[in-house]
Specification:
Blueprint: H1 3-29, E1 34-38, E2 44-49, E3 55-64, E4 71-72, H2 77-89, E5 98-105, E6 108-109, H3 113-119, H4 125-144, H5 156-163, H6 167-174, E7 177-181, H7 186-195, H8 204-224, E8 230-232, H9 233-239, H10 242-250, H11 258-265, H12 278-285, H13 290-313, H14 318-339, H15 348-364, E9 368-369, E10 372-373, H16 376-388, H17 398-402
Parallel strand pairs: 3-5, 4-6, 5-7
Antiparallel strand pairs: 1-2, 1-8, 2-3, 9-10
Helix pairs in contact: 1-7, 2-5, 3-4, 4-5, 7-8, 8-10, 12-13, 12-16, 13-16, 14-15
Length: 404
């Protein structure tokens, strides 16, 4: 492969990447009841289902990308090739109620005759047909004058094919034709579509990369299974996780330090009691004072309320909370085993002293979620919740006494 061939290959590859990014843009815009296909009926197609599950609207999109930005001209090969492809495509389309043919390009639209007519194709049908036949005649005459060793005009075959179509076939296309010209960056447009979904500006780049990655993975897995790349609104939102990505992007990072303010601003009632709680029985059993038990109960109660508020805000999920509690049990188990390695259960005084030490060590052990260390009161609240279930305890024989 020579240098020119390599450049051509690179441009082709870039065209496919552009097509994928346009597909992602359309995924973000997808509405309930719509299905988006890739390289099935056209480069991209959008089906909108009717109430009876038939195809209400069918949008066929030809995606044309140019590395060298410029204008679509009257003799733009991408334009004529697109019309040629649609004429071949129409007979094999599924049954639909309405259909639209869209040329999606990153080029600008100039003011030459053919392009100008196509900007309002429905109103210029006869003029478009006349222009097609005249263009074919002009190119045919120019080709006939070439010497045998001269290369043919690559546009000629597409113009000839379009010109040979019947008026009825051409009218069918042009009554449903529209341009979509936008030379702004497709990456910028994807970010703009996400911004309209209330994604904070600071999270746009990461969110865009997550969405692109989710699509690329889904596309790869479907192709490997020899499946068509056809994605419904529900597939995108649920299977590909777009709703989850959006919720995560909208949520502010969990501010665990805020719990300190919540804890110290809480006005506890004079009558507050946790006498009917498992954790109360466990602490009372090892000699912890009533005042401290109430302190621990307040930490547990506020910790649960705080974690629930984070979950509702989307900044700390139920699975993350479950993982935090499992890590807390692991940390406690290590401390419990170390504390009671030499405990003799028949020596109650020594057993209680060791149990208190196990409790104190656990309360001093700060929990972490990721790289974030939780405030000590929040960690204590989590441990006390676990002793209230009970999943953890302080005595060596806590399970036989309190797990019933």
């Amino acid at each position: 492969m020579n240098h020119s061939d390599k450049i051509a290959a690179d441009k082709t590859s870039l065209g496919f990447e552009f097509q994928d990014f346009v597909y992602i843009e359309k995924l973000i815009e997808l509405k309930p009841g719509q299905t988006l296909g890739l390289e099935l009926h056209d480069d991209i197609h959008v089906e909108t289902a009717a109430d009876d599950a038939s195809i209400k609207d069918l949008l066929l999109i030809q995606v044309k990308h140019s590395v060298d930005l410029g204008n679509i001209t009257d003799r733009d090969i991408d334009l004529w090739k697109t019309i040629h492809n649609w004429l071949k495509l129409v007979p094999g389309l599924p049954h639909y109620r309405t259909v639209t043919f869209q040329l999606y390009t990153n080029k600008n639209l100039n003011n030459q005759t053919f392009v100008s007519l196509l900007k309002a194709a429905r109103q210029n049908i006869q003029a478009i047909l006349d222009y097609i036949r005249k263009t074919d005649q002009a190119i045919s005459v120019a080709e006939s004058k070439k010497k045998p060793d001269e290369s043919p005009n690559p546009l000629a075959k597409y113009v000839k094919s379009v010109s040979q179509a019947s008026d009825k076939e051409l009218e069918f296309i042009f009554k449903r034709f529209e341009f979509h010209s936008d030379n702004s960056s497709i990456i910028t447009r994807i970010s703009s579509a996400l911004r309209q979904l209330s994604i904070p500006t600071s999270r746009l780049e990461d969110t865009r990369k997550h969405v692109i990655g989710a699509f690329k993975e889904s596309k790869f897995s479907r192709i490997i299974k020899s499946e068509k790349v056809v994605i419904t609104f529900n597939d995108f939102r649920n299977e590909m996780g777009f709703d989850r990505i959006i919720r995560s992007a909208r949520a502010e990072p969990a501010d665990f330090d805020r719990f300190v303010d919540i804890y110290y601003s809480y006005q506890r009632p004079d009558t507050l009691s946790f006498n009917n709680s498992k954790f109360h029985d466990q602490l009372k059993d090892i000699g912890i004072s009533d005042e401290e038990i109430v302190d621990r109960g307040v930490e547990m109660m506020l910790a649960e309320q705080f974690i629930e508020s984070l979950r509702e805000a989307g900044s700390f999920s139920a699975s993350e909370n479950s993982r935090l509690e499992n890590k807390a049990v692991s940390d406690w188990k290590l401390l419990h085993n170390q504390s009671h390695r030499s405990t003799k259960e028949d020596d109650e005084a020594a057993h209680q002293q060791t149990s208190q030490a196990c409790y104190d060590q656990t309360m001093r052990n700060s929990l972490k979620t990721g790289d974030i260390e939780l405030p000590s009161n929040l960690s204590c609240g989590k441990y006390i919740k676990l002793s209230n279930l009970p999943r953890i305890g302080w005595r060596k024989n806590w399970q036989s006494r309190f797990e019933k």
